[in-house]
Amino acid sequence: MDFTKKISLEKISGKLYKIKSKEPENNKEAVLTHYLHNHLNGYAKYYKTDAIEYTKEILQYKYPEKIITSAAAEEALQYGLFDTFEVPFPPTKNPKFKFIDLFAGIGGFRIALQNLGGKCVFTSEWDKEAKRTYRANFGEVPFGDITKEEIKSYIPDDFDLLCAGFPCQSFSIAGKRGGFDDTRGTLFFDVAEIIKRKKPKAFFLENVKGLRSHNGGRTLATILNVLRNDLDYFVPEPQIINARDFGVPQNRERIYIVGFRKDLNITEFEYPKPTNIKVKFADVKEEKVPPTKYYLSTQYVQTLINHKERHASKGNGFGFEIISDDSVANAIVVGGMGRERNLVLDHRITDFTPTTHIKGVVNREGIRKMTPREWARLQGFPDNFNIPVADASAYKQFGNSVAVPAIQATANIVIMKILSYDTKKRK
Ligand SMILES: C[S@@+](CC[C@H](N)C(=O)[O-])C[C@H]1O[C@@H](n2cnc3c(N)ncnc32)[C@H](O)[C@@H]1O
Question: Taking the CA atoms of the chain, what radius of gyration do you get in angstroms?
């Protein structure tokens, strides 16, 4: 069989799924890409059996006249039958540490951690469009629903750092303390369970600022209680970090929670200090923007303004701001109905958030909505980050994502602590 002929995994999977149109969403591509990304380190073993099975299926489809054995499939994989590395952010060579990327979205954590020399060994994200963006940038397809035991069973045993920007949910706290069992049925429970089973050296959790006051402070208190007392991690007081303090022109405050396994003997942790880099919207502005796609008519701008005034009188925030080139954008978010005050409350206009003045184009004021690339830059994503999805999905994905520079500055401190523990242990 000629294994030198490369097969596009994306194309062939598309065809296979079409034939088996009734097949439910499966994790075959996730298994295969995770295997390929780890086949030179010890982590491939977690994916190997299933990766070979899927490769057999693909080869059987490609060469129906041949009998494909497991050995042939494995050989095909070794020969590099699929290329999943022609992407802007391929896996880190000679990594300094290993991490897993949960609730991965489009990989904001992953970019930051790869920049710091980390290798991702497992990722999960269930949104189809977010997976598309993730794959186009990292060459790896995330596994799906992390609440499922089947998905959890793929998580490797030995990694240094667990990252998760998990959605915030209420706990129905039965006892006073708010312990592990009280969080059952929430996504935090799944995060806690993975920490409990795998005992990574450290974790880095991210959430909306509102987590602090959620349910009268009980949600955060429960989370901290579980992490500190049930899981026995050193967890310093969580910190609210503003993206604009780390070099992007966006006022985005998020709560960061880090923790270290007790045997690392880490008893102090300081979150990063704001940098003095001054940034403004002009620094991320795209100069050549197609007039018909992004500029708004004078009439439409007026409708938005009227609408906003009506909502303001009812005490609601409203989903757009008109900002000038030398100011800073509000937190970008799409479809965050009621998630936080002052964010987007009306789905119809979410992607006009925020807008900017550019004199003399299309409408009198030159007001347009921001482009997906500008949203990417507001979150600190580099310009070689691929945006393969339609604008509506792109806004949602960047709005849901993290501010990469703020994550990186914090993760850098976490990693330095882990690495210094590793060095001491080796001595
Ligand atoms: C706040 S976003 C995190 C975004 C991510 N940190 C990034 O940089 O893009 C939360 C993500 O969790 C995903 N999600 C929610 N429930 C999930 C589940 N049960 N399994 C896997 N992913 C899930 C959502 O689709 C969403 O993309």
Answer: 23
Residue 376 covered by a domain: no
Q: Say how far apart CA 384 and CA 387 lie, in whole Å.
A: 9
Say whether pLDDT at 144 is over 70. yes
Kindly state whether residue 389 falls inside one of the protein's structural domains: no
Q: Are 379 and 394 in contact (CB under 8 A)?
A: no
Confidence at residue 6, expressed as pLDDT on a 0 to 100 scale: 78
Task: Tell me which amino acid residue 115 is.
Answer: N
Q: DSSP 3-state assignment of 270?
A: coil
Q: Hey, is 12 helix, strand or coil?
A: helix
Coil, helix or strand at residue 215? helix
The verdict on 264 and 304 lying in the same domain is: no
Residue bearing the CA closest to ligand 1, atom 14: 103
Domain that holds residue 264: 97-275+402-426
Collect all residues with Cβ–Cβ distance below 8 Å to 154 and sequence separation of at least 6.
27, 30, 31, 34, 46, 47, 122, 143
Q: Is residue 281 part of a domain?
A: no
Residues 34 and 115 in one domain: no
Residue 120 among the catalytic residues: no
Structure tokens at 293: 């796609």
Q: Report the alpha-carbon angle 297-339-212, nearest 5.
A: 140
Please state the atom number of ligand 1 nearest to the C-alpha of residue 127: 25
343 and 201 within one domain = no
Cα–ligand 1 centroid distance for 109 (angstroms) = 12
Tell me how many domains the chain contains: 3
Global pTM value: 0.90
pLDDT band at 313 (very low <50, low <70, confident <90, very high): low
Asked whether residue 282 is assigned to any structural domain, the reply reads no
Residues within 6 Å of ligand 1 by CB:
103-109, 124-127, 130, 145-147, 165, 167, 187, 400-402
d(CA 384, CA 25): 30
CA proximity to 379, closest of 368, 387, 388:
387
